[in-house]
Amino acid sequence: MNKLFIFIFSIAVLFGCQKSDKSYVIHTIGDSTMANKAEKVYPETGWGQVLGNYFDDNVTVANYAVNGRSSKSFKDEGRWQTVLDSIKPGDWVLIQFGHNDEKYKDSTRYTTPYGTYTANLEMYVNEAREKGATPVLLTPIVRRKFGEDGKLEPTHGDYPDAVRKVAEKMNVPLIDMQILTKDWVNNLGDSASKKMYLWVGPTEKYPKERKDDTHLQVEGANNVAKIALREAEKQNLGFVKDIKKDEL
Q: Is 215 a catalytic residue?
């Protein structure tokens, strides 16, 4: 009986060791709209900060997005190299830049849409693929800027279009956050959308009220994360199998 038990136990261990590890990491790189926020600036919240809440235990979301970074400065500061060093085959990389690439007065961040911005996105895609990861390109989320007609006005120039062109050229999955969040904010309207962005009263950190039409508060960040994941489901991207369906 003891020998039979040992044999069965050995077979179980053998098959257990051969079982493939289903866990993987979704690396997110981008700017302040995606970044993790310190407690002192609450309720400001990046949508990448809450993304991990919507996945099961197979997925770890490693959010490398940082306030104020562009596709250029993120690379130049060595932050992309840190991400590359941690990527394993089977991982994913979500790439969302644009807000700070537009800052033409700042040579450390500015890129041209169909020039250096495009080149940087292509570099991120190629190097992620070389590490065995799957890159996903995202256009920047909209700023909350309503015109006299009660509809959002575009603020990102040619940058979203440049992302779309890179995605098409390189056969990269595209989550068009500029279009998706534009529809979302337009449907909410001028007044209700303030609750998604940083239109908040005085806090200890900010004694004056904030009327910030770029950054999100908690509810807005969660809504943007859900918008991205619903689009990923429509495209049947590989990681959607590990989304907590009841959370969306």
A: yes
In DSSP notation, 61-100 reads EEE---TT--HHHHHHTTHHHHHHHH--TT-EEEEE--TT
Looking at the chain, the whole-number percentage of residues with pLDDT higher than 90 is 85
What dotted CATH number matches 24-239?
Answer: 3.40.50.1110
Helix 159-170, helix 118-130: angle, nearest 10: 40
Residue 204 appears among annotated catalytic residues: yes
pLDDT of residue 18: 38
Domain boundaries, the chain: 24-239
Q: What is the DSSP string of 7-56?
A: HHHHHHHHHHHHSPP--EEEEEEE-TTTS---GGGTTB--HHHHGGGGB-
Catalytic residue (one of 20, 39, 148, 204)? 204
Which is the catalytic residue, given 44, 156, 215, 231? 215
What pLDDT digit, counting tens, does each position of 192-211 carry?
999 999 999 887 777 888 99
Which residue out of 27, 32, 71, 127 is catalytically annotated? Answer: 32
What does the pLDDT look like over 59-79, one tens digit per residue? 999 999 999 999 999 999 999
**Residue 5 clears pLDDT 80, i.e. is over it:** no
Which DSSP category does 208 fall into?
S
32 among known catalytic residues:
yes
Task: State pTM to two decimals.
Answer: 0.90
